[in-house]
Amino acid sequence: MKKIALFLLAVTALMAATPPKPKLVLAIVIDQFRYDYLTRFRAEYTAGFNRLLTRGAVFNDARYVHFPTVTAVGHSTFLTGATPSISGIVGNDWYDREEQKHVTSVSDSGTKLLGDTGDGSSPHRLLVDTIGDELKMSDHNKSHVVGISLKDRAAILPAGHSADAAYWFDPKVGNFVSSTYYFADLPGWVKDFNSAHPADKFAGVKWLSHTMPQSGKPLYDAIDASPFGNELVEAFAERALQAEQLGKHDATDVLTVSFSSNDYVGHAHGPYSDEEHEVTVRTDKVLERLFQAVESSVGLDNVLVVLTGDHGVAPSAEEDKLNHMPGGRLPGDTVKNAVNAALVSKYGDGNWVKGSWDLSIYLDRDLIESKHLDAAEVRRTAARAAFGVQHVFRVYTYDQMLAGAISLDDVGRRVTNGFNERRSPDLTFLPEPYWMFGSSTTTHGTTFSYDNHVPVIFMGSGIRPGRYSESIIVNDIAPTLASILDVEAPSGSVGRILSEMFQ
Ligand SMILES: [Zn+2]
Predict the structure, then answer these.
(1) Active-site residue 443, yes or no?
(2) pTM as predicted
């Protein structure tokens, strides 16, 4: 019996064929999208999510295996398959020890914004390449690759280094902008799109108990944390599809679309709020509009859709309290202040903390050196001070991480996957589950399940629809796409090919 079963298994495996190469990869990220948004609101999905959930391969235990679980890191993982230790994207922000300044994952003073004034952005801090980059290398640039989002990092990082363009929304001007990294001037179709002032149509529009401001900067600022940010991004993606003839070239094209409003709404209201419910159900409609546009221009049979979230989110402190759950909110700079106070009292006056973003602390290494102190000892002192803060769960020093001397339980492994020797902070800390630092209603960034569990869905020809319960990692997306597209896996890719969904 066992032999027969094994034989059948082998035959089934042989029969699983790699899906045909699509004309277009439509790679979608929803910013701050917990896996349970698929199940909690399932009965209300009649459009895009319904299509994905009935016709797609739905992985219900997909995890991020890195820390911190924030936008830049999730978006860089999506189509590179790399952990931050390898990709170099260790956060949304960090202190660059060589440039001696605060940088973001995509800030690039060597470029200029197009469509507004100021410095532009680029993928130059991303150390690895993406699926789009591999495609372009393999077919000598025949593939067209475009990234779109409300946020610069969410447009730039999935698209990659050799992308034809990345576009994002700039609330200062209320339009889509780009960077001189891609071209010297915005394409005509982008200027046309912007000249119609598409954000203005949301002036005074109501959603739930909220009313959008009447005009100008207040209106554009309010777009992010409303369902209308996603509508704008979808409309822009439709235009890009037509103008760039995506899916109509003699090669596979890639369109990456990241919907950011879910993140802004989530931060402001929490995952169990009416607002989160509303933006999620509206995302169902927005996705279907995008699918319809792709259907009429390329035909969905020729398109491989892949969707994920870049991270989840914790319940708000108020939601926790209502449910007799642990959790609460501490001022954002509690740990930073405790660390600085301890270092002042032990080593003398000074601004010992050079920068602190999310759950990271960068110390002033020049100050440490000028006082002839042992940097590792200073970091140990800082770590003790950080751990002295109530509801701090773990503290890791740079030295512990470098030596690999941290407990490799589930938390430790994820923190290790986030450690890049050149860019990581002097101290990394985590709050206890459900606790958070900062003033927003809720946030994300930890290694815990509510932050690392997201949907992964593939839909297209040759993909076997169904629910897949085996544990996978989001890093599996990139090598899976590489296999389907017959290109080399991106340079930092650490995942496996999800061949169980091949028909
Ligand atoms: Zn966020």
Answers:
(1) no
(2) 0.96
